[in-house]
Amino acid sequence: MEMELLAAGFGGQGVLMIGQLVALSAVDENKYALFFPSYGPAMRGGTANCIVIIGDKPIGSPILNEHEHVIVMNNPSFTKFEPLVKKGGHLYVNSSLVSQKSARTDIKVHYIDANDLAAKAGANVAANIVMLGSLLKISQFSNYAVTEKSIQKKFASKGEKVVKINLSALKAGFEQA
């Protein structure tokens, strides 16, 4: 099994965290994982994206022309990365912030109200985890319980309240998908 992900948005939207959690979950299931981040000079407000590839065999290169799964958190990312979804692939759109609609008929498009669902889960900043939940349901890149553990590990130092909010956001995204 191999899964390819490109996640993109503005810095501060947690795009790199999505990639880290996908890779961490894969490693926790004894899979190979490659996480390749890319971000502009500004930490918040600049562009950020990452590529994650997971598989049962060693991964040769992070360089891909097209991606099976693409998450876009804002309009500029939609414009730039929607054409890079493989035919038959999946585009996950944060419809809380992205006003554009895909005209492509050769891919599956999932409009997720990520910011709205994150706010209901307890924190607007958990929109990335909502998107992660949708990705998990559709791609099945990992077992749900393993991904929950990855979130608990990653956010443990921020306190139990933050962990609970992120677990609620994961569930909201999983259920919306």
Structural notes for this entry:
By secondary structure, this protein is of the alpha/beta class. It has one domain (2-176): Pyruvate-ferredoxin oxidoreductase, PFOR, domain III (Pyruvate-ferredoxin Oxidoreductase, domain 3). The chain contains 6 helices and 6 strands, in the order E-H-E-E-E-H-E-E-H-H-H-H. The chain has helices at 15-28, 75-81, 114-121, 127-139, 144-155, 160-176; strands spanning 2-10, 32-39, 47-55, 67-72, 85-94, 108-112. A 6-stranded mixed beta sheet has the order 2-3-1-4-5-6, with helices on both faces. Strand 2 (32-39) and strand 3 (47-55) form a beta hairpin. The radius of gyration is 15 Å and the shape is globular. The model has no long low-confidence stretch (mean pLDDT 95).
What does the secondary structure layout of this molecule look like, with pairings?
Blueprint: E1 2-10, H1 15-28, E2 32-39, E3 47-55, E4 67-72, H2 75-81, E5 85-94, E6 108-112, H3 114-121, H4 127-139, H5 144-155, H6 160-176
Parallel strand pairs: 1-4, 4-5, 5-6
Antiparallel strand pairs: 1-3, 2-3
Taking all Cα atoms into account, the compactness measure Rg is 15 Å
Order of helices and strands: EHEEEHEEHHHH
The total tally of domains equals 1
What order do the strands of the largest sheet run in, or round the barrel if closed?
Answer: 2-3-1-4-5-6
Q: What is the fourth-level CATH superfamily?
A: Pyruvate-ferredoxin oxidoreductase, PFOR, domain III
**CATH class descriptor name:** Alpha Beta
List keywords for this structure.
177 residues, alpha/beta, Pyruvate-ferredoxin Oxidoreductase, domain 3, six-stranded mixed β-sheet, 6 helices, 27% strand
